[in-house]
Amino acid sequence: MTTREIKICNAILDVLHDLDGGQFTELQIHGDLYVRLGKNISLAELDAAIAICNVRRWIVGVPGLAGKMKWNISDRGEAARLEL
pLDDT, tens digit, for every residue of 17-44? Predict the structure, then answer.
């Protein structure tokens, strides 16, 4: 992973951690990342970071209404969040 991908993945894990078991769609995560990082994150970067987190099982996605995925952090993600 690049330094930027690590930063975005860490921010995604922080966003989902702060939900205390709640779920966010990608759009909600994208908006929160803009606030946290103070920069615009492209959708391609967001999709890549979510894919990395999903493959590593740091986050878990479930289909919501209209097929939009809702994401929450896993126990592995909590551990990775502390290590990143």
Answer: 999 889 999 999 999 999 988 888 999 9
